[in-house]
Amino acid sequence: MVVAFEGWNDAGEAASDSVRLLARLWKAKKVGQIGDDDYYDYQFSRPTVRRNAAGKRIIHWPATRLYRASIPNSGVDVLLVRGVEPTYRWKAFTGELLTLAEMENVKAVVLVGALLADVPHTRPIPATMTSEDAHLREVLSAEPATYEGPTGILGVLAETADSAGLPTVSIWAAVPHYVGQSPSPKAALALLRQLEELLRVSLDVHSVAEDAEAWERGVNELAGEDPEIAAYVHQLEEAQDATELPEASGESIAREFERYLKRRARGGRDGRDRDGREGYGGNSGDESD
Question: What CA–CA distances, in Å, run from 225 to 137, 228, 233, 247, 287?
């Protein structure tokens, strides 16, 4: 089961866009839905008015939708889950989702997210794979999850699935916070590359790669028009390049991280956006079928 939620867990909508592309590439078919008044505050996650194929106006409510597909040339089926992060009753929500997963014979869970971070748009977008399972970390060269603090529905789902005995992996992309609005194709591309390696598949991401190049050119132009932004991007580049040098020691990395925390504290951000939500980059709208 591959899962992404719009909202707090989805900076630039990179995670939901990547899972949406998988559904399109694999011609996934809808097999279920979780949508209930008990789960959503509609003043926060508002329904939208749309017209259907016949031209009739319909209300489209926030929900979590499940799609089933077969990964080509693999003999493996996948359950793709896209939705809006629920507002209420997260324990009941995750229980309902995992019950549906059991009914669909799910044997492993991949959670896909994106967060805002102090990274430059000119470098490859970091996409980190983590797991609480020591065996999975060894097999997949994943890292242990070290984050502590407020969490989103993906964090709750990760712990619940792991406690239920489902092998669980999380993949997170770091979206440059100064261009965290949607879309963020370069971050979506980084997530898709990680999914390729994890699922051992080859994906047609040509269109996403083209969008990522166009996105980077556009951000370059905007940064070139603002000396302060250009200087800030250069500072981020130097910091990232320094930590990637072979001679970069653990001590120097720790010092850089300490400086990062101090900058965040001075800016009053503490790892969150201006609304106090870490990693939020997308809207809270509903998912389309």
Answer: 44, 9, 13, 35, 35
